[in-house]
Amino acid sequence: MTAYTYATYVTALSTEMVVPSTDANFNAILPTIITNAELRLYRELDLVDTTVRDSSATLALSTRNFTLPSTNGTFIVCEQLNVITPAGTTNPEAGTRNPLIPASIDTLDFLWPSTSGSTLPVYFSMIDQDIAIVGPFPDQTYTVEVVGTYRPPSLSTSVTTTPLSVFFPDLFLAASMVEVAAYQRNFGAMADDPKQAQSWEAHYQTLIKDAKTEEARKKYLLGHNETPRAG
Q1: Within the chain, which residues score under 50 in pLDDT?
Q2: In angstroms, what CA-CA distances link 41 with 82, 172, 178, 195?
Q3: Is the whole-model pTM more than 0.70?
Q4: Which DSSP string do the residues of 150-192 spell out, in sequence order?
Q5: What is the pLDDT of residue 98?
Q6: 101-102 and 65-67 as β-strands: parallel, antiparallel, unpaired?
Q7: 3-state class (DSSP) for residue 27
Q8: Looking at residue 182, what is its pLDDT?
């Protein structure tokens, strides 16, 4: 299937809904349909395209709290923290990455309750969506490379393509149509067309299985006994 731009996606969606793309109600609900479909897909697929590296933030001397950078927006999942040495090196490629090991907050509180013994951190723990703590306390100002998942901007008139519209256009449309069924109140047994939601959800489930397999191949996650399908 050809990749969608915002304009071609709107045309396809309005055609499936059998409403004009200029309809006021359609345009009012459109951002919600897009957002809900995107969130569902980003959560289920865990795309390679949504993983970023950001080295724009640093640890403060003798302070264990580290606020994740927001250059690409809020990190949804922090997968890895790399402390860059020597201290003062801002480009990870010009220094050495020292990966921190995930640990519990209790462990860090017990082993390093104070700044005593400050040195190069070895462990980290997330304490909320945006803040991690490290242990031991840092003895210098180190650059930190954060590797994690973010949410790309939603498809819109100003963001004309996204990873979903380009690489998974059929799945994106199916997810959108499941949301449309909710909007048109076609979910329940007493709805005008209860089979609409069931049909699109079944189609979505078929498509996402293949999409997950493809995404796993990108990450080399297929098991030894799994053979990628030809074609």
Answers
A1: 187-191, 224-231
A2: 28, 8, 12, 22
A3: yes
A4: EPPPPPSSSS---HHHHH-HHHHHHHHHHHHHHHTT-SSTTSS
A5: 98
A6: unpaired
A7: helix
A8: 77
**Which one-letter amino acid corresponds to residue 143?**
T
Q: Is residue 70 within 8 Å of 78, Cβ to Cβ?
A: no
Which of helix, strand or coil describes residue 82? strand
Mean residue pLDDT of the chain comes to 90
Task: Look up residue 124 and give its amino acid.
Answer: F
Q: Which helix (H) or strand (E) holds 31?
A: helix 24-45
Q: Which residue bears the tokens 């250059």? A: 71
For residue 214, give both structure tokens: 């493809």
76-79 CB contacts, 8 Å cutoff, 24+ apart: 76/148, 76/149, 76/150, 76/151, 77/148, 77/149, 78/126, 78/132, 78/146, 78/147, 78/148, 79/51, 79/147, 79/148, 79/149
Segment 53-70, tens digit of pLDDT: 999 999 999 999 999 999
- The H-or-E segment that residue 207 falls in is helix 194-218
Rounded (5°) CA angle 78-79-82: 95
Q: How far is 148 from 73, CA to CA, in rounded Å?
A: 11
Contact partners, residue 109, CB within 8 Å, separation at least 6: none
- Dihedral (C-alpha) 195, 196, 199, 201: value to the nearest 10 degrees? -120
Whole-number pLDDT of residue 184 = 67
